[in-house]
Amino acid sequence: MPMCPYLKQQMSIWFTEELHPYYRKGIRVKKILADEQTQYQHLQFVETEFFGNAMILDGIIQVTERDNIGYHEMIVHVPMLAVGQPKRVLIVGGGDGGSLQQVLRYPSVEEAVVCELDQRVVDLSRQYFTAGFGDPWTDPRATLLVRDAFGFLAENPGQFDVIISDTTDPIGMAERLFSDEFYQLLVRALAPNGAAATQCEQPFFDTALIKEIYRVAKSLTTHPAYYYTQVPTYPGGGIGFMYVSNVPWEKGLATPLPPGVNNYINPDVHRAAFALPEFFRRELYGE
């Protein structure tokens, strides 16, 4: 299988990513661990000099061992804490296992379903991310479904206390996961007083998209809110999420974090994540 041109040209020096035509970022690569074209995407795992092992899909960094904490802890715990005692959880995407690891920290969880389209993401993540994520797939509460999430959501109205939409960027097939139809199915699949969090891009680069998603979320639920986290290997150094629920996110501030070690979230970070820069607050809320 042909090697990614960026890696081929700059191997052992830099992997350069260009998600946006006006912005580039790079990380130093020590070793290519896996490189294959799956049924759905170009999948690579590399060992980097500073961020540990990293997964790259179609030339875009998805997760690294060092900075995934900002992403996984924030996308999972904010809706889980708001619900309080979630029993059934759905993760859309999330084949790397990081979100699943965080979900399973909650003793109340009886079932965690991961709906991942690409089996190879799971297979290689279990090989190269064990140091950071362990192997949450062996937990008897975990269920892996290798299928399109759209059909599964449509088949399961009102079934999940929490839904985590742990998706790639809105490119190619993943564009559907940012559509009105997807959010309608997501909200329909939530149990009463359930909550969801969706990957929702970056305020500086994706303002128009986030505004549209917020509009849709607001039409479907009473307490949608955008929040933000630091992830140095993502464009702009961070990424945001859309909280989607009829339950205010603030309710989670009174809920204790689950057993286990937190490396990013704490009550102060939880609260501060919803404080938006003024330019973006005006754009999002139309003020």
Question: How would you summarize the topology of this molecule?
Answer:
Blueprint: H1 5-10, E1 15-20, E2 23-27, E3 29-37, E4 42-48, E5 53-57, E6 60-64, H2 68-83, E7 88-93, H3 98-103, E8 111-116, H4 119-128, H5 130-133, E9 142-146, H6 149-155, E10 160-166, H7 180-189, E11 190-199, H8 207-220, E12 225-230, E13 238-245, H9 267-272, H10 278-285
Parallel strand pairs: 7-8, 7-10, 8-9, 10-11
Antiparallel strand pairs: 1-2, 3-4, 4-5, 5-6, 11-13, 12-13
Describe this structure in words.
The strands form three sheets. A seven-stranded mixed sheet has the order 9-8-7-10-11-13-12, with helices on both faces. A hairpin with a 7-residue loop joins β12 (225-230) and β13. It has helices at residues 5-10, 68-83, 98-103, 119-128, 130-133, 149-155, 180-189, 207-220, 267-272, 278-285, and strands at residues 15-20, 23-27, 29-37, 42-48, 53-57, 60-64, 88-93, 111-116, 142-146, 160-166, 190-199, 225-230, 238-245. 30% of the residues lie in helices and 30% in strands. It has 287 residues and is an alpha/beta fold. α8 packs across α10 (278-285). The chain folds into two domains: 5-62, Roll (Spermidine Synthase, Chain: A, domain 2); 68-285, Vaccinia Virus protein VP39 (Rossmann fold, 3-Layer(aba) Sandwich), CATH 3.40.50.150. The termini are far apart. The longest helix is centred in the first third of the chain and has 16 residues, at 68-83.
